[in-house]
Hints:
- There is one protein chain.
- By secondary structure, the protein is an alpha/beta fold.
- An 8-stranded parallel sheet has the order 26-23-22-19-16-13-28-27. Strands 3, 5, 6, 9, 10, 11 and 12 form a 7-stranded mixed sheet that branches. Strands 1, 2, 4, 7 and 8 form a 5-stranded antiparallel sheet that branches.
- Strand 20 and strand 21 form a beta hairpin.
Amino acid sequence: MQLFHDSRNPFYRSPVGALPCGSAARVRLLVRGDTIPDEVTLRVWRGHEERLPMLPLADGTYEASLPAGDTPMLVWYRFEVTTGGRHIVYGNAYDNLGGVGCEGNEDSYQLTVYDPAFDPPHWLREGVMYQIMVDRFYDGDPTNSLFFARQDIHRHADWYEPPALTLTDQGDNLANDFYGGNLAGIRAKLPYLASLGITVLYLNPIFRANSNHKYDTGDYEHIDPMFGDNAAFTALCAEAGSLGIRVMLDGVFSHVGADSRYFNSRDTYPGLGAWQSTKSPYYSWFTFHEFPHTYECWWGFKTLPNVREEEPSYVDYMLTGPQAIVPGWIQRGASAWRLDVADELPMPFLRTLRQSVKAAQADAVVLGEVWEDASNKVTYGSLRSYVLGDTLDSVMNYPLREALIGFLLGHIDAEMIKRRLDALAENYPKPFFYSLMNLLGSHDRARILNVLAENDGESMSREERRALALSPDQRSVGQRRVRLMLRMIAALPGMPCVYYGDETGMEGAADPFCRATYPWGQEDEEQLEFFRTELLRRRQTPALTRGEYALFAPHPDVLVVVRSIRNGKDAFGQNVPVENDTVLCAINRANAPRKVQLPAALLGESEDIVLTLGALDSVILQGH
């Protein structure tokens, strides 16, 4: 007896993918063999077991209706067949990525059930994002007095010299070297950003803190004086908004700096911090094991004491009080919060945060840092889903980034990257999938050019990475791969995101060397123009921003994505200003040419499409 089910084939599961509450999926299992089964059962788990009998149709097909239910949640299903005393289990695929299942696998298929009202703001799916570390972007106020007044920092006299590396006893970088970038610098470069087609600026933390990266928050109520002041932030948001650019803040809410108004271990701030006294208004925010020197801290770093996010006074200060931090900065001009280590924040905190953001501005966004599949992340032994419509609007799409890097470097083939991306498309609600932040690089990883040149310094000591430089051959190969990755990210659903300077061909090993300054006047103009062309194409092409999505793997070295508008409707059935529009993007990761054949229907042609792709090359075709 042979069993068969394919969760991505509408004959076997319809509709394919996540379901809104109140709907149902038609689920089918094909049973082939000489004997008729005694019983075919759809075993369902939604916090409790349900066993639904499957009814026979023609040709060995069995069918059942699987109700989504009225509560957003993850529902799991598999098949059980009893015949002649045998009990056969048929579950998810061998790698649990969905699609064609596997006999003997007791792991179930996932069915995501989400709030039907969940609809992330459309400026995510239609936008282009740019990430900036403020100190490293541009100095628009060379007279900034605080930059010269602080005595506890290292000031770089040369904008172009590499970042400093000063290791603490715990092995962390002290991060106390500054170049002088500020909010005025970003305002000065808004025309440049607009010329790239940017619609969203993601700023790494900008609140008062000791370090250059500002993830050790000292005071959530004030912009760091080295970057500007609160008025400068509001002015930046207003001027950016006049160019169609929104601003997203980086929210670090799982911990604060030890040198902060809340902990105050260095007696820097007026008032009592938790480290100073048990009578501090902030004392209940922290967990002390032996007051004041032993306390819970983030990943063991004593400079970053953890906060108790569900402590009522913390929730009031951050989210719900009359002067609450999170909605307050939305009211000052921000359009979104990116949540640092979102998967370390309690779910009730995230739900309240979402409510406070949406109350401040209906189309504001909550985007989280989640490195894995955000529909089924296991954190601290608990399964959490961030895609149901009650917490996050979007996440940083690290699974896509890692899959593309793996494909371009030859670690996985086109069929495997297709499986991984199809699994995300299956597990994520469509509105969520189309709103993902598709990042090319980030401040947490070596520069994407180094990664794709296969010289990121991971095997070196941090001191050795300082002198790391790509050879001409490595740089050439890396640049070509970066272009392939950019084209794919710009073609896929979700919002492409560029880490500042990647568009200029910046090199750098991991932190802190991936955080060098933008090389004004020393840009690789050819690479920059390629980025500008691709990002503007993305922004200006309805099929790429709103079109239906399909992915193909016609050859182990070739990946093809097709986006399409049909009959004046986008992927969500909304009207668009074009009747029909199709864009095909194909990339070849091989060091040799590849020829592939694709169905004519993909571009509405009368004959099959034959593509010849050069080595490390790509093609974009547009049809109707």
